[in-house]
Specification:
Two copies of one chain form a homodimer. By secondary structure, chain A is α+β, with helices and mostly antiparallel strands. The first copy, chain A, is 39% helix and 21% strand. Chain A has seven helices and nine strands, in the order ααββββββααβααββα. The structure holds a DNA duplex.
Chain lengths: 238, 238
DNA sequence: CGCATTATTGATCGTCTTCAAGAGTCGTGG
DNA sequence: CCACGACTCTTGAAGACGATCAATAATGCG
């Protein structure tokens, strides 16, 4: 018997995510697949986008991780959010969009141009959902930094990341790739690397978190201060 | 001699702001003025929008302040941002938008429907700029909570508010209305009311901040950790 | 005027930072 | 294959910033 096959032998995380968000039709998927061939790669630690730059193209993240960061005058750094496969970069409705923050590649990143969504209802839905989800995650990040303890911040952020990777089909039985250093996790959670280290160790001892060699998993349990309902459900009807 | 008059004898802050953002033409201003007549008012402490609700209408804030809040499971509260006169509520490109957070009126608030921007280039520009500015302020809020001290958070937030009110023409020589309690300021800065009290007193002693009876002013000076360039300049060309 | 809310003050405690040093890991080149 | 250097992780000790608890003073509203 021939098993039904997915639309591609190699599953593309970005396509998985956008299909989930916008219920793309075959022609829309084909548009993305066409763009895969003109993918661009960014080397580790290089800027994908610089604050103040004009944004001529909208990009679709294909692989790798990136971090939207802000550097304060004294050199301290805050990671505003992470950009993961299937995420869009540069969505906005200004005529001459300007990047409001710098996005840096963590490890090697590949991107392709995001297809034009005009006259493409599925893509339009997917982009709108993507933007709404990103905004919801900014809210989550604010609540994390403002009202959670170190332990809660780290656990909550990792759960959010896991949920997002899952949307792109990037979470397996044994967990997911987590290519962060503890220092980056500190920059994202507003903590010091030293305290992140101690807190991560504690979460490991609690059995909540496994994380070694860039691979992590986190057990299903609800944190005390956040319900962590699926974000996708939070920003759409039903 | 007859002096040139502003377009209305009573200057409407919301119109001032949108004109500044989008360079509206007379017909677009007229559209807003028409909507002023169907303004709705929300009483203090009532919800303008509830998380999870469908958003049938886009609103334009005319007067008063509102706070976008998230309440965590243990009852602690985080104010994500403030909504001020001239701000838009419900901008997004989803077909069936859902509120990602609750917005509560601080004091009495008046709103009117935001005119449809289709075929209205000025309004389109203004709405796009408004959204970009709001996003930039979310980034600012994250950096504040993640990387600034109590003193810096309060000073930086108040400067941001002052800058925003100024765009709507709501800052006078002697300062601006600041209808917040110290508790709300605590919920916005991720601090406790007690510590906000002490920090505000300190800022007063430093001569940085005047604030009494709901009226405040803050002296021009750059905070150590943030440059606080005008946000409007940050999200647009030149 | 009376009550509820808000602001203020003091004392103590805990979380997280800071500083500093050492161990582990990884990639690179001899 | 091993040695080296650069990160990254880990650990300890001390200190600071802000939280917490509790009580009192002001405000402001009805």
């Amino acid at each position: 018997m021939i098993q039904p096959q997915p639309h591609r032998s190699v599953v593309e995380p970005a396509i998985t995510r956008l299909v989930a968000l916008g219920d793309l039709d075959a022609s829309e998927i084909a548009l993305i697949e066409a763009n895969l061939r003109v993918a661009r790669t960014v080397r580790p630690h290089n800027d994908i986008l610089r604050e103040g730059d004009a944004i001529p193209t909208r990009w679709l993240m294909l692989s790798g991780w990136a971090a939207r960061t802000r550097v304060l005058e004294d050199g301290s750094r805050q990671i505003l959010n992470f950009t993961l496969p299937g995420d869009l970069i540069g969505l906005c409705d200004q005529e001459h969009p300007v990047a409001a923050s710098t996005i840096i590649a963590i490890g090697k990143v590949t991107l392709c141009p995001a297809p034009d969504a005009r006259e493409r209802p599925g893509l339009k839905r997917a982009y709108a959902m993507s933007r709404a989800i990103e905004e919801a995650h900014l809210f989550d990040q604010i609540a994390r930094l403002g009202r959670m303890s170190a332990e809660e911040r780290i656990e909550d952020l990792l759960r959010e990341i896991c949920e997002r990777l899952d949307l792109a089909g990037l979470v397996a039985q044994d967990g997911f790739d987590l290519p962060l250093t503890q220092e980056m996790l500190a920059d994202a959670t507003g903590l010091t690397p030293v305290h992140v280290n101690r807190t991560v160790q504690h979460l490991r001892k609690l059995g909540v978190l496994q994380w070694s060699h860039g691979r992590a998993s986190i057990v299903a349990r609800r944190s005390r201060r956040s319900e962590r309902r699926l974000t996708l459900a939070r920003v759409s009807q039903r």
